[in-house]
Design brief:
Two copies of one chain form a homodimer. In chain A, 43% of the residues lie in helices and 18% in strands. Chain A has 311 residues and is an alpha/beta fold. Chain A has a single domain, classed as Aldolase class I (TIM Barrel, Alpha-Beta Barrel), CATH 3.20.20. In chain A, the strands form three sheets. Chain A has an eight-stranded parallel beta barrel, surrounded by eight helices. A two-stranded antiparallel sheet of chain A has the order 4-5. A two-stranded antiparallel ribbon of chain A has the order 8-9. In chain A, helix 10 links the parallel strand 10 and strand 11. In chain A, helix 3 runs parallel beside helix 5 and helix 6 packs parallel to helix 7.
């Protein structure tokens, strides 16, 4: 298997899209037509919610797979339904991979080294039970939190190397108060700039044929001013960019996430694609019953917007 | 239901112990006598590993419950076995609560606000599915990562308030390189001191009758020099202190975690209790077959050591 960044770039070229669809299921927003499908139980329960979520994800993946090559389930929205929800998370990853997509587990894990090793093995590695080898979630990549330092990230980096997987380090997050700690000035640099320097270092030994590393960075589209400098500090890191769409960032905000080769960033949208039926102009045009048309048009529109900007 | 800190203190007094037993199952280290118990499947598989882990936890909880009032399952070691592992995690929490223990979910979650809300509801809150209310994991408290800032922690704080649960914010972690970012000097203070100040603020509205807050802090026993100042910055935060035992910290290192009232800290040990059979003097005395005696003596010894220090 190839270096993760090379696989990512090949997929971006194949689909002609650098969009990541965030699979963030909100039970309330899932159309009733989907909810009627799971036959095992129609009574509200954790199992029922999990089955609905999986059915929704399968329908979404079928819809978007011709247009995008990357999906990113956010595990929080699955943990919400307990271990049944985590079952739906695991099955979603499986289905995404079966459809040829690259799946990024948005899990934002981080812990002391021995624990980080278990997280890495769980999400992008493998587990040994007596004489057999199994995989728990087997995503292609995962997001990680850097607060605990280099030794806490080494297990993720080593597991990524061993299995040709990727990691994305939280550098500058998209939420309104991300600057509270991330923008603190430490000496002459901001904390997130120091984390960016380290991320660049962590990725140096994992650079693929295309010049990009399997160690990427999460950089919020909502902080367009910081992006140029971060691109400079981490020239070979792939940026995973949240904040587009529902969180307010536009195509102008993400311009500097890309290198001059037109590569270097994947742009995430979740709610604005999954629940496009709920926003203009599709709300008026289609409504919830024809949600699939809304989602399909939303993804095609987002591809076109970013494609035009990259021309 | 009472404020989490008041419940915690009542439990500490009831058991006369401020020890937390970390339920970190390592499949390889679980004694064979335990492995032979789960009858559903004896073939190595994720399900089998999860059933073994749950059986081990039940036996450990039964052993330690007369001596300690708090357990802390580390979810990484359950995620390692996929959704089956997460099932064992959920069942472990249930069993711990059934035996009257306070259960801290060591999950170190942290994300943008809308996602953090899902994590909070999953681990210490509740979830609404149509017209029913369910709980996913329902621990008494959870650990959280502060890197994303105040808005990312508000959902945890609000959920803790609503359900009388607790949170423990990672302030200064126990791993060797925790200082890499956490000790950076920002202005006149170290990053972890600034996080400590915020943690103290976040907890101000959640102080119980005993003067302690439901917003606590994770402070590694391995950094005894930092502890005195952190105790001063966060006078009403309960400290969850990892690093005792297997990670090398001793009773002298944790002295300053406590206030003069003998309260203010709970001390975690995982491997040194669960796998006591594997360390001296119990290795020689009992060996793996009599692992229960080793675990029991180890917990009694740890209680005594800390009890003597607090006299």
């Amino acid at each position: 298997m190839e270096n993760f960044a090379d696989r990512l770039i090949a997929k971006i070229r194949q689909k002609n899209s650098c969009v990541v669809v965030g699979l963030d299921p909100h039970f309330k927003l899932i159309p009733d037509t989907v909810k009627q499908k799971p036959i095992i139980s129609h009574k509200p329960s954790l199992e029922y919610a999990a089955r609905v979520i999986l059915e929704f994800n399968i329908q979404v993946i079928d819809l978007i797979a011709p247009h995008v090559g990357i999906v990113k389930p956010q595990i929080a929205f699955y943990e919400l339904y307990g271990w049944w929800g985590v079952w739906a998370y695991a099955e979603t990853i499986k289905y995404g991979k079966y459809k040829g997509l690259i799946v990024i587990g948005d899990v934002k894990r981080g812990d002391v080294p021995s624990t980080a090793e278990a997280y890495a093995d769980a999400h992008i590695g493998e587990v040994h039970i007596d004489d057999i080898v199994e995989t728990a979630f087997a995503a292609d990549a995962m997001t990680v939190n850097p607060y605990l330092g280099t030794d806490s990230l080494q297990p993720f980096i080593q597991t990524a190397r061993k299995h040709n997987k990727g990691i994305f380090v939280l550098v500058k997050t998209s939420n309104p108060q991300s600057g509270e700690f991330q923008d603190l000035t430490c000496g002459k640099k901001k904390l997130h700039e120091i984390v960016a320097e380290k991320t660049n270092e962590w990725g140096k030994d994992l650079i693929g044929k295309e010049g990009y590393s399997a160690v990427g960075a999460v950089v919020g589209a909502t902080y367009s001013h910081e992006i140029e400098l971060l691109r400079e500090i981490m020239p070979s890191a792939y940026f995973l960019v949240p904040g587009y769409g529902a969180q307010g960032a536009t195509v102008n905000d993400i311009k500097y996430c890309f290198n001059s080769d037109g590569l270097g960033a994947i742009i995430n949208a979740s709610r604005s694609i999954l629940y496009a039926y709920n926003t203009s102009p599709w709300k008026e045009k289609y409504g919830v019953k024809a949600w699939k048309y809304a989602t399909q048009e939303a993804i095609i529109k987002m591809n076109a917007e970013i494609g035009d900007m990259l021309l």
